[in-house]
Amino acid sequence: MDLRPSDEQLQLIDAFGALYAKESTAERVREAEPLGFDDRLWAQLVELGALSMAVGESHGGWGASMLDLELVAEQHGRALGPAPLLESQVACRLLARTGGAAATALLAAALAGERLVTLSPRAPASGVLALVPAGAVATDVIVRDGDRLVALPIGDDRTRPENVGSQPLADVPADRSRLAAATVLAEGSAAELVDRALDDWLVLTAGALAGMAERAVAIGVDYAAEREAFDQKIGAFQAVGHRLADSATASAGATLLAREAAWADEEEPARRGELAAMAFSFAAETARDATDVALHVHGGYGFMLEYDIQLYYRRSRGWANVLMSPSTAARRVADRRYGPRGSN
């Protein structure tokens, strides 16, 4: 297993890295708060083919591998991209797998930039889809309604709660009458389709969190190399340098595990779900710890809005919990390895 990027993948990394360097600067990330959506960045991502690459040529896409998508997700996390890239890629892949006239039509509209489609990782409760990722800016949300998979239009009656990660989350009304009127995408296979989509989402989020952790460590190292105390750079103190080194090691491990999970999507599909949850759990904890270390290296300055590290500190916690906690993902690993709890 060789997870080093190929020449083509290096070009892909360079292309998206250049886009984020221009369109997702720290200033632009701040300007997108509190909603967490930059429509100019989103338009550039759609134009560059960030959604089209997620599906096969038979559906009008590029047919990129999951590893290709994970490499892009790393760049997205490094730059804290204020756009619902991962959510939309997962939704597009789900629509492509679902097939059928309704799913195909919605997919075509999403790839053309005419609709912004997301997926709810949770079922409706008390007539509401709570904290729908990208729900604040999406036009449609795919949701599991019992055995059915439906596409629910999102109206102006959505509620946009503020959140620590500055994400475009929304509570979307989804009572029985709305779900009954929603467009049916599939019947009888909703659970399997959504579960597979969650595997995709876990892998891509793991890549984004790994990229976030790597960038946070770099910010901490840069600060430690210029800040002085007792007439020397603070990076020379073991209490600072060793913690940053540990974080760098962990972030490299998170990146490796995320890439392995992405690689397994095609090469070892039997381990796909297990590795996806494992990569997510480790990357979420790594990003949380790495941003914590980098913020504390800054001392009291780390909590000031003028310093970029607080952007990473907040998002490392918010981005992960949109799907599930690291401990919940760890239980998902165990379920995939040994079977669901209570099954034996």
Notes on the protein architecture:
It is a single chain. By secondary structure, the chain is α+β, with helices and mostly antiparallel strands. It has a domain at 191-338: Butyryl-CoA Dehydrogenase, subunit A, domain 3 (Up-down Bundle), CATH 1.20.140.10. The chain has twelve helices and eight strands. The chain has helices spanning 7-23, 26-31, 39-48, 66-78, 85-98, 101-111, 176-181, 190-226, 238-267, 272-297, 309-321, 326-338; strands at 117-119, 128-132, 140-145, 148-153, 170-173, 183-187, 228-229, 232-233. It has a four-stranded mixed sheet. Strands 2-5 form a two-stranded antiparallel sheet. Strands 7-8 form a two-stranded antiparallel ribbon. Strand 7 (228-229) and strand 8 form a beta hairpin. Helix 5 (85-98) packs antiparallel against helix 6 and helix 10 (272-297) runs antiparallel to helix 12. It is globular, with a radius of gyration of 20 Å. The two termini are 33 Å apart.
Helix content: 55-70%
Biggest sheet record? 4 strands, mixed
**CATH architecture classification of the domain at 191-338:** Up-down Bundle
In the CATH hierarchy, the third-tier topology of the domain at 191-338 is known as: Butyryl-CoA Dehydrogenase, subunit A, domain 3
- Distance between the terminal alpha carbons, to the nearest Å? 33 Å
